[in-house]
Amino acid sequence: MTPHRPWPTWEPRRPHRSRRRTLLAVLVCGLAAVLALAGLGAGAVWWGTEHYGGQVTRIPDAFPTQPRPPRPTAHDGGTTFLLAGVDSRSKKPTTGSDATAELWRYGAQRSDTLMLVHLSGDGRSAYTMSIPRDSWVPIPGHGSAKVNAAFSWGGPPLLIRTVEQLTGTRIDHFGVVDWHGFTALTDAVGGVRVTVPRDVYDPEQHRHFAAGTRTMDGEEALAYVRQRHGLPGGELDRIERQQDFLRSLVRQVRSQVGVTHPLATARMLDAITRAVSVDDRMSDSDLRDLVLGLRHLDASDAAFATAPIVRSRMIDGQYALILDKQRLRAQWRAVETGHAPTGT
Fold it and tell me: Could you confirm whether domain 17-336 is CATH 3.40.640.10?
């Protein structure tokens, strides 16, 4: 099978300066995002992380027990996060304080969205790499399969181990939200304005999305960011949609949250703690340090990319993407050592 279009290379994008800090904050950790967006002073940040940090659901034993990749000698001292959006078959929430079902049960959940995010040691740059769910990779103890199977078969530890083995990087923190949480967060901000570039039909979800700009509620937004059937670029088009949606979500949050909007700020913090789970190694002081560090990102560049892909092919009756593992590792090593391109 031939690809739909030329595969993307590492091409940093430079968002508008006013969006940089907020977008990266949302990607890294929802709680830290809103605190950073609010422009709160150090005292308010301290109070916020003490008050709300304790409400964030921690995932016990999220990291693998096997030996893990070492940091490169020239590591910039930054922090690497693995963020996952989970497609759960449960009708009940599985992430955040609203969870009434298990985060992971064998075969019941898949990591539908994966983003690797690195914040530099000086707090002045950040890089995000999306890993397509159809990436065909080695999964320790299970041979090779699509990367989203790792979470299904072994929960956070196996997913983290799989991504670390793929990229050669050491993941410091893990964050996850299921689609219940995604819907709740979208509704919490009163919906998100989305521009649909052209009329499109999703044959899998049996939904039409008409061209134009409108505010989507959580249910419609979820269907929109999940679509891949009916899109010319399939999974790659879906990744672009997800990134564009995050930008719109950030604009919406920014318009509502701040020291002059205390009720909206509290509402958003409550929604985030109800929806998001993080690893149990992320302490309240880690959250506080993250927020304070993000305050310096206004003058930095932010780069976004998709893992480099060689080709698509059918494997055992499944559509799969073959990654360029050598290029991927080289690109991420450049990020970790402060030598990634900054764009124009």
Answer: no
